[in-house]
Each structure stands twice: as C-alpha cells, then as structure tokens.
Amino acid sequence: MGVEEIIARISTDAAAEAERILRDAADEEARIRREGEAAAAQEYAAICDEGGREEKERRRKILARAHLTARTAIREAREAGIAQSFAGAGRELSALPGTTEYAMVLQRLIAEGQEIVGPGDVLVLYREEDVAPVHEALAGYPDITAAVLREPSADRAGGGVIVTCLSHRCDQRFVARCERMRERLTRETARILFGNDG
C-alpha cells in the first residue's frame, strides 16, 4: 500500500469521523445556545423593571459566553478529529515496514533524498531490521552505498532511511518526514475533514 493509498484511506475514515464529530459539535452548539437563550430570557424578564440598558448588557454577555462556549466545543472537536487522523496515519506508517510495498516506498524516499542532498557520493543509512528492503530498493542505484544507522531511534516502530552526501543530510525516516510536513498535513487534514471553514 503506497503513501497515496494510505492518505486516501485515512481521508475516507477521517471524513466519516469528521461527520460524526461535526454532528456532535452542532448538537452541542445548539444545546448550549438553547440554554444560553433560555437563561438570557429569564434574566431579561427578571431585570426588565430595572432598566433597558442594564438588561441589554447582561443579555449580550450571556449570549457571548454561550457563543464562546459553543465555538470552543467546535474547535476542540476539530482538534480531536485532526489528532485522530494523525494517530491513524502513524499506525499505518508503523505497519508499512512489514509489507511487500516497503521496498518501493524506500526507493521513492531514497530518490527524493538524493534530489535534496545533491550529486556526489550518496550514502543511505538504514535501520538494521530494514537490510533486505533497503538492498531491494537500492537495486536500481548501483552508485549509492548503504550502511546501518548506528544512532538510536526514538521511534523503533517507524521506518525510512537517511540519505547523506558530503555534509548534506536528508532524514527520510517516517517520523522526521511527518514532523517536517506537520503544518501542511494539518491544514490539508482540516480541509478534508471540515471543508474550507476548517
């Protein structure tokens, strides 16, 4: 399963989850508004005798609080949807090293990394457990050498490689790529889940 298929699958799952979250948020917003308006109506009746200006100010504040509470609930629902999407993507990426497509994914990561580090003697650093897929991915690159990455990884379940050339280094491990792309992916996920108002 390629990265595009994973993103499409996550988008489909996330869209269904987003629909549920938005329905729940809309119901919560409606409830909060009803309660806020009911409270405002009660306040209005109680202070009507004390003067119109004071009543209007209190009513405005109550409605503003209800509106703020509703907006906060919607924002939290959206953030939860985005967090669920990223968690799902993390699970999918963690499972990728055990698949037959992994060598093709590594080949693409190596090609992208090579473009970034530029021409020269390219070295690919990989996790010890990825020796077979890395050698398969490098079959089309006879001029590239490879070595086991000796630095400890914070994410043992992840995959990917590091591409180096002279003093240039492109970290193509899944965790590093997701971190580099997080802002763009967050915007794209919000657009997919919530449309243009996300």
What does this entry look like structurally?
With 198 residues, this protein is an alpha+beta fold. The protein is built from five helices and four strands. It has helices at 3-47, 52-95, 102-117, 131-137, 174-194, and strands at residues 122-126, 145-148, 161-165, 168-171. The protein has a four-stranded mixed sheet. Helix 1 crosses helix 5 and helix 3 (102-117) crosses helix 4 (131-137). The chain starts with a helix and ends with a helix. The mean pLDDT is 83.
In short:
With 198 residues, the chain is of the alpha+beta class. The protein has helices at 3-47, 52-95, 102-117, 131-137, 174-194, and strands at residues 122-126, 145-148, 161-165, 168-171.
Question: SSE layout and pairings?
Answer:
Elements lengths: L2 H45 L4 H44 L6 H16 L4 E5 L4 H7 L7 E4 L12 E5 L2 E4 L2 H21 L4
Parallel strand pairs: 1-2
Antiparallel strand pairs: 1-3, 3-4
Supply database-style keywords:
single chain; 198 residues; alpha+beta; 5 helices; 4 strands
Output the structural class.
alpha+beta
Number of helices: 5
Mean of residue pLDDT values: 83
> What can be said about the biggest beta sheet?
4 strands, mixed
Q: Which percent range fits the helix content?
A: 55-70%
Strand order of the largest sheet: 2-1-3-4
Give the overall shape.
elongated
What's the order of the H and E elements? HHHEHEEEH
Beta-strand level of the residues, as a percent range?
A: 5-15%
Ends apart, CA distance between termini: 28 Å
The value of Rg in angstroms is 26 Å
Indicate the low-confidence ranges by residue numbers.
none
Number of strands: 4
